[in-house]
Amino acid sequence: MSNLDLRPVPTPCGGRGDVPGGPVRELLPAKNVPLGESTVVRRLLPSMGRRMVGAWCFVDHYGPDDIADEPGMQVPPHPHTGLQTVSWLHDGEILHRDSLGSAQTLRPGQLGLMTSGRGIAHSEESPREHAPLLHGAQLWVALPEAHRHTAPAWEHHAELPRVTGGKGLAATVLMGELAGVASPATAYTPLVGADVSLAAGTSARLPVDPDFEYAVLTMSGEVEADGVRLAPGSMLYLGCGRTELPLRTSVDSAFMLLGGEPFEERIVMWWNFVGRGHDEIVRAREEWMSGPARFGEVHGYDGARLAAPALPPVPLKPRGRVR
């Protein structure tokens, strides 16, 4: 998924200096951002108070939107470097195309994972004939130095492993490992991404890794995580140092659990690029605007590719994890 902001703000991220050593309860503010012709997303990461959770560096939550009489998601071809995109749906379908030649329709419960590495381009759109509702999340994972120039790749996982935690709790493991259950998706840092469902009246404790920092994104219902009630579209940062996460709900609910080892490297995000400094971002932008040599071409999308916005007038510098 793209950051379609015409004036994207450079976002320095990374480093362990501002990661709390123990548990916290920090509600992250959401920003409404237009995405394409008819979709508005709630951008939860990076936020004014927190830039990363482990290697997770970007989180958008959208819907549920009634698109029965709308085109739905329409994101033209655009580039990425230095990251993985994670596409996850609760309702609807998204047609992914990329410059590797991939053309895959994603449906609820299926993982779309794109590793941009040194550079890739892709588009995302609701199919012409689509379901009436669209609801999901789009996330980015920053690639570490050793792997950020790797060859681009696309993975589609129609079946993912599940964790059950007693009556009323079940989790699908998208990325990494949870409670001893590992996803088949390729990950380059120690992390976890899971979709957790809670039946009405459930009270449970989910085992977590004390060396990871975590956040909870409520997808539907109303989740109470460590005593904090979270409406849909709310994201709670939990810090590190936990061995379990207390959960309660009075209605059928679902949330995404995101976590990982704090990301040591200092990075900079601008538009759809993750890099390590100003010159690298400038070069990526120039190469996207000059033609398909680095990023390739996306075939099959009915429309022009996105033009990169203008760079800010000051150099982009990687700094810390919080503003």
TrEMBL record:
InterPro entries: Pirin, Pirin_C_dom, Pirin_N_dom, RmlC-like_jellyroll, RmlC_Cupin_sf
One Pfam family here: Pirin
Annotated Pirin N-terminal domain residues: 42-141
Region of interest: Disordered: 1-23
Pirin C-terminal domain: residues covered: 194-291
Similarity comment text for this entry: Belongs to the pirin family.
Name of this protein: Pirin family protein
Taxonomic classification: Bacteria, Bacillati, Actinomycetota, Actinomycetes, Kitasatosporales
